[in-house]
Amino acid sequence: MNNIKVKTLGAVLAAFATLNTHAAESPEVGEGTLFRSLFGNTLEKDYGIHVSNLLDVAYSRNNRSTHGEQKNGLGNLPLIGFADEGLELGSLHLFVDKAVKGNMVPRVTPLPGPAPSEASFGFTFEMLYGRNAQFARTQGWDMHWDVNSPGDDDLAKAQRGKQKFLALPNLAATAYLPYGTGVTAMAGIFGPAMGYEIPPNLRAARNQFASKTYAFLSEPGTVAGLMLGTRLYNGKSAILGAELGVVQGWNNLRDNNDKKSLMGAVRWPTADMQTWIDYEFILGDEQNDSFSDVQAPTSRLVSPDGQFKQQHSLNGWHRFDSHWSIGADVVYGRQDGDGKTSTVDIINGPGFDGAHWWGANATLTYQQRPDLSYSVRAEHFADPDGFILFPATTARGNFNALTAGLRYDLNKYISLRPEVRYDVFDGNADDHPFGAGRDRSQLTGLVEALFYF
Question: What is the model's pTM?
Answer without folding.
Answer: 0.92
